[in-house]
Design a protein that fits this description.
Blueprint (H helix, E strand, L loop, with lengths): L3 E3 L14 E4 L2 E7 L9 H19 L6 E8 L5 H12 L5 E6 L9 E8 L4 E10 L2 E7 L5 H9 L4 H4 L6 H11 L4 E8 L2 E11 L3 H4 L2 E9 L8 H15 L4 E4 L6 H9 L16
Parallel strand pairs: 4-5, 11-12
Antiparallel strand pairs: 1-2, 2-3, 3-6, 4-6, 7-8, 8-9, 9-10, 10-11
Helix pairs in contact: 1-2
């Protein structure tokens, strides 16, 4: 069994020998989260701080509130149980994971609660993760699901280069690839929907590295917009959303490659402020 540990750059560095998140077998274990408000803050503010931190950890793990499996809560004063239950229920917005609330000895710095959680990773589906106001109407962004794979492959094949590279009639390898990337917390495959139609996609990958003072890179691949939605601003809004999502995930550099035959695409990326600064190389490994 492979175990992956992740620390969110948006949270304080762990004080001891532990990670914010450990993922294995499709689950993420999130270490105890405490408020950043200080012990003098109200209980309500401390709960809000802890749940904000949990949101960050869930996003880092590739999950979300609807992916929560179980939550363990430690309260320094059990008289706050009812208030916590109300605030937690509002935050969950209808999802009700398994939960236990335990009395705790006094927590450090006078804080009133600590929370740990287990969540399913590969948070395919769920509610919208973004909304883009195009001239053709609002396009909602979702994390792609396995059911989206046929439409995504058709979208990838719907251009001159993709028509020769992709095979929408043989979906097995695409479905295997989807399962692998959907389980990886550093991957996000986006499905853009206009009504019931899947009209756009891209894949965002977060890559840690040592170069450039250990900056996190965000790699964009597989950008496609359906022919029916071209010219309505969707491509621009989708790339800008991806840049914002990359920043939210702690990336300091956004990069992509584009086939040199896609001259219009290259001009489009340059119009968004991207610079043609490197020469990309590829080698077919003949698997």
């Amino acid at each position: 069994m492979s175990v992956t540990t992740v620390n969110s750059p948006q949270l304080p560095t762990p004080r001891g020998h532990y990670s914010h998140i450990a993922t294995a077998s499709g689950l993420a274990w999130i270490s105890g989260q405490m408020p950043t408000t200080g012990g003098g803050a109200s209980f309500r503010d401390q709960v809000g701080s802890v749940l904000d931190r949990l949101d960050l950890c869930l996003a880092e793990a590739g999950s979300g509130r609807e992916g929560l499996v179980s939550v363990r809560v430690f309260l320094a004063d059990m008289s706050h149980w009812a208030e916590f239950d109300e605030l937690f229920g509002q935050w969950c917005a209808g999802h009700a994971p398994a939960r236990i609330v335990l009395p705790s000895p006094p927590l450090r710095d006078g804080l009133l609660l600590e929370l740990e959680a287990v969540a399913a990773v590969g948070r395919s589906g769920g509610g919208p993760i973004g909304a883009l106001d195009t001239t053709a109407g609002v396009v909602h962004l979702h994390r792609a699901t396995a059911d989206d794979v046929p439409a995504l492959v058709r979208l990838l094949a719907d251009d001159a280069l993709g028509a020769d590279r992709e095979d929408p009639s043989a979906l097995a390898p695409y479905q295997e690839a989807f399962a692998e990337l959907d389980a990886d917390p550093r991957q996000l495959l986006v499905a853009a929907r206009h009504g019931q139609d899947l009209v756009g996609t891209l894949q965002l990958t977060i890559i840690p590295g040592l170069s450039r003072h250990a900056v996190r890179r965000a790699q964009i691949e597989g950008v496609r917009v359906a022919s029916s939605m071209r010219g309505c601003g969707l491509g621009t809004l989708l790339l800008r959303w991806a840049a914002d999502e990359a920043r939210r995930r702690g990336a300091g550099l956004l990069q992509l490659t584009s086939d040199l035959q896609r001259t219009d695409a290259i001009r489009f990326y340059q119009s968004l402020g991207m610079t043609h600064s490197h020469a990309g190389m590829k080698l077919d490994l003949d698997l």
